[in-house]
Design goal:
Blueprint: H1 2-39, E1 59-61, E2 67-70, H2 89-98
Antiparallel strand pairs: 1-2
Length: 106
């Protein structure tokens, strides 16, 4: 009776040990996969763009105080049109016309 009880205990403990090892391997694989996804450079469309500042050097003035050339800072805005709600497209165009990005054509 005692030996049969010990055999059942060994059988159950080996099953529990096997399940623990399998779950540990699955958890480790999951954590490695998550870390690889977090650290990878995803190629998605970005809502924030980087600013590339070119040097502004001022004006080139000739001997007779005539400005030959000058640097001017320019700004560029990009809009991802896929993010505009089709129901609000007319409102968006009105807004862009209001801030004078382009004239509104009727």
């Amino acid at each position: 009776m005692e030996e049969e009880y010990n055999q059942i205990i060994r059988y159950r403990s080996s099953i529990l040990l096997g399940m623990f090892i399998i779950l540990s391997i699955l958890l480790f694989t999951f954590l490695i996969t998550v870390m690889l996804i977090i650290n990878s450079d995803r190629q998605t469309t970005r809502k924030i763009t980087t600013i590339k500042n070119r040097a502004i050097r001022g004006s080139i003035i000739s001997y007779d105080n005539y400005s030959i050339a000058y640097s001017q800072k320019t700004y560029r805005a990009e809009i991802d049109t896929r993010s505009i709600d089709p129901k609000k497209k007319d409102l968006f165009i009105t807004y862009l016309a209001y801030i004078r990005v382009f004239p509104r054509v009727r």
